[in-house]
Structure formats: structure tokens, C-alpha cells
Amino acid sequence: MEPPVPLTRKRDISSEWFSALVESALDGVVTMDDKGRIIAFNPAAETIFGYHSEQVVGHLVSEKLIPQNLRSSHEKGLADFLATGEKKIIGRRMKITARRADQSVFPAEMEVISINPEAAPVFIAYIRDISKREQLEAELRQHARDVKKTLLQTILAISRTVEIRDPYTAGHQRRVAHLAATMAQALALPQARIEGIFLGALIHDIGKIAVPSEILSRPGKLLDEDVRYLKIHCRKGYEILKPVDFPWPLADIAFQHHEHLDGSGYPQGLQSGKILFEARIVCVADVVESLTAHRPYRPARTIEEALRLITQHAGRWYDPRVVDTCRRLFSEGYRIDTIDLDALAWLSSTP
Fold first, then answer.
1. pTM, full prediction
2. Residues forming a β-bridge with 113
3. Which DSSP letter does residue 339 get?
4. What's the pLDDT tens digit per position in 82-137?
5. Which strands, in side-by-side order, build the sheet including 105-115?
6. How far apart are the C-alpha atoms of 248 and 45, rounded to whole Å?
7. Boundaries of each PAS domain copy (predicted)?
8. Is residue 1 part of a domain?
9. What is the pLDDT of residues 183-216, one digit of tens each?
10. What residues make up the domain containing 212?
């Protein structure tokens, strides 16, 4: 049986292993005493900060590694810890701004541990330069914005294509989209849902591409056969949009925007809980805009008449919350006939 390793030898081995780990670490390891002076600086830290170890050891951390405008915060934090023992940053990974030897600043992640708490404490900071990661993340965010902008412009182009085929409803989808998104905002929905409602409303009638133009522009009262044919546009819109993997339920909005809470709508006869809230909003906006706009088969109604109609059917056809919100917007001065259709503020405001 081998004799036990002496305690002093164990300490030597432990110290050797620790030194090897610090020297080979990919993260910068900076050790600081209770006076704020650097007492160790590993090779990774040399690479990150651009200093040789001998250039910083014995110097204050605040003088060498911290930007001028942040030095007082660092010094105060150290003083507070020594006075109270309160560990505000000890043991937490946090993002900081650090300074290199060439005086340039960079973002870094840092975690600090404190050892030897019985005597004068020693602090070990593990530091990682994240400037390349943040640059990549910024590039990815910009790429996502560019893709999103292209997607939005494509949806807008599709919307205008539908309106070209139906000149009597030119601007209809954009007006519905503006009103629907304004209601969604008033209802305090998350931004992502507001965007989906705006875009879904912007192409909610895309299925009218499948409806003969002579029906869309027929003067006078529509024949029963025309009405039946016109109703297919919801399903056709769904079929057109469903294969596209949008981050919003645009296909379902197109499919459901003529459904009623009591199941009397079309084309599926859905009832209350099965109708998307987004589709309920677009439905009310669509009704209000349609009633107040001229059509070849009927004159325009006043906004008062339109609001009175949706109020009469609130709870039976239309969502009461949406109806109340719509009425409140118009009572506060919203005007559907004065919005700037070309500015499309909802598109430009999306991040």
C-alpha cells in the first residue's frame, strides 16, 4: 500500500494544476487584490487587452483596463464590497465595457469570484471579448430587418395587384389594414400581433383574384349567383397564402374575416372560440370601411350608420371588445377617409 501524499505536496500539486488551468484558459483571467491592483494576468488576457503581463501587474485595474468614464463606478463598487461584504457582482456573469492598451473600448462578458474571504480578499475575473459576437448579432438583426422589409413590400405589392383588378375598391385593403392595426394598438396587443393584423388585413381580399372582374365591378344589386361566387374569395385567399410560411396567421385571417360569432358567417360557419382574434378585428374594420365606401351596387353610408350597425350586432356577429374599441377610436377623432395610404406608417414603424 502506497503511503499517503503529504498535505504540503497536495497543495503544491493543486497549485500547479490551478496555474496550468489559468495559463491555458481561453478566457482572460485577471487577478486583483483588495487595493484594486492587478496581481496576475494570464496569456488570454494579454491577447484580449493588448498588454504584456509585466505592463499591468502592480497597476490599478481602473487605470489600465477600465474606460475613464467608468473608473469611479469600479472604485466605488470595490470600496462598498470591502466595507459591507455585499456581493453585488460577485458570482454573476455580466456585460461590461473594457479598455485595451491602444485606448479602444470593447464589450466584454465578465464573472468575478472572491477568494480568501477570512483575510484580505483576492478577486479573480474571467473576461471574454464579445465584440465579434455582438458585431455578428448586429449583422444578423440587420439582415432580418432587410428580409422583413422585402416581405412587407412584397405583401404591399400583392395588395395593390388585387386593387388593380377591382378599381371600385382601390385603397380598401390599405384602409382596412390601417383601421385594424389602430384598433389592435388600442387593445394593447403585442407588437408582433399588431404587425400580423396589419399585414393580414392588407391582403385579406387576395382571394378576389379568383373572382371574375365583371362580378367585382357589376353595377346595381348583385345576383344571388354573383354573391355565391364572391364568397369563394375567403377560401381562395387561404389556399394562396397557406403554403407560405409567414410568421403571422395571414392565411387564417383571409379565411376567417367574414365569420360571425354565432356561426352565421362564411365560408366555414365558425363560432366564437374558433375564430382568431386577429380575424375578428379585421372583420369589424372590413365592415366599417366597406359600408362607408361607395360600391357600384350601393351608395356609401355615413360612419355613424356603420358604427350603429356593428353596435347592433356586437356579441352576435362581431366581437364586443373590438366594436367598443372601434367606436372609441372614431369618437376620439379617427377618420378613415383622411389616412395617408402611401405613407403606410405601420410598415415604416416596424423594427
1. 0.69
2. 124
3. S
4. 877 777 888 889 999 999 999 999 999 999 988 875 678 899 999 999 999 999 99
5. 38-41, 28-32, 122-129, 105-115, 93-99
6. 46
7. 14-85
8. no
9. 999 999 999 999 999 999 999 999 988 887 766 6
10. 135-348
